Structures are given as C-alpha cells and as structure tokens.
Amino acid sequence: MEIPVELAENYINRRIKDLEYLETALDDENFLVCEQIGHRLKGSALTFGFSELQDVATQLETHAKEQDKESLASDVSDFRNWVEKLVN
To answer: Rounded to whole angstroms, how far apart are CA atoms 29 and 23?
Structure first.
C-alpha cells in the first residue's frame, strides 16, 4: 500500500517537531518524554515504511528507560541525522 504524499509529508513534519522535543527533554534529563517519543516512533515508523527509524526509536525508548543519557544523546543524534536526510 502506498502512503499518500500529503500524509508522508505530515509524518515527516511531526518528526521534525519530535526532534525538537527530544533535544529539549534530553537537556532537561526528562527521560519519560524521551521514552514516550521513542515508543510512539517505534509504533508508527514501519507504517510509513521507515525501518531505519524503527531501529533508532527502539534504542531511544530503551536508553530512556535505562536513563542512559550518553547513549540517549547518541540516539537523538541518529534521529537528527535521519530527519536531516529526509528534509534535504
């Protein structure tokens, strides 16, 4: 099933917002917000055909649960790289 362009664009725009929320939550050490975003991303990534994002989201959720700020910062960086690839 092909995802309509408008839905895909909206999905990507929401991921840009998620990146902003993740960066703020990481700075504030708000691991619960990071975990929730990772969980949500993990659930929606494959629906839109983004298997790489699902892998990143799984790591986000796991490291947030563990409150592993160093690994979580790396995951947020991976997510940032994923978003940048899509918008450029």
So the answer is: 10
Q: What is the pLDDT of residues 29-64, one digit of tens each?
A: 999 999 999 999 998 998 888 899 999 999 999 999
Residue 64 lies in a domain: yes
| Furthest C-alpha separation in the chain | 40
Residue 37 placed within a domain: yes
Domain that holds residue 35: 29-87
The continuous run of DSSP H or E covering 65 comes out as helix 51-65
pLDDT of residue 1: 60
Number of domains in the chain: 1
> What is the predicted pLDDT for the residue at 2?
75
The first and second tokens of residue 43, run together, are 């659930």
Round the average pLDDT of the chain to a whole number and report it. Answer: 93
In a domain, 23, yes or no: no
Amino acid at 11: Y
